Amino acid sequence: MDICGPYPVATPSGKCYFHSILDDCSNFGFTALLHTRSEAPRFYVDTETYLECASGLLVKAVCLDGVPELSAGTLGAHLKARGIAVQVTMHRLQKFILVITH
User: Fold this and answer.
1) How far apart are CA 10 and CA 55, in angstroms?
2) Which residues are bridge partners to 99 per DSSP?
3) What is the pLDDT, as a whole number, of residue 43?
4) I need a surface site. Which of 1, 25, 34, 73 has the fewest CB within 10 A?
């Protein structure tokens, strides 16, 4: 998982960040345009819900670069409550890996 931005030129609707997620099990990628970095937890939860419903499996671990928007706060609390392991990688690694239980 990674959040990129702000970019100097925003979309017509004012979005200047993007959030990317790659599911390692299905190899599907998900990208969302965001107004602010604080919108990232909602996008993650929506993506997690979609993947779990589509596969019938649970997310077991996430891999991210440790930025506060992804590893702490609302999203950090969500991951902890669900028992999802957080694997922190090098800063700026633009990939998010979901490990699905079989």
Assistant:
1) 34
2) 61
3) 94
4) 73
Amino acid in the structure at residue 28: F
**Distance of alpha carbon 82 from alpha carbon 60, whole angstroms:** 9
3-state DSSP call for residue 3? strand
State phi, psi for 2 to the nearest 5 degrees. -150, 150
Residue 12 phi, psi dihedral angles, 5° rounding: -55, -25
Percent of the chain exceeding pLDDT 70 equals 87
pLDDT, tens digit, 9 for 90 and up, residues 22-68: 998 888 899 999 999 989 999 999 999 999 999 999 999 998 877 77
Closest alpha carbon to 63 in 93, 32, 88, 100: 88
Measured CA distances, 18 to 24, 27, 52, 61, 71 (Å)? 19, 19, 22, 22, 17
In CATH, the number for domain 2-94 is 3.30.420.10
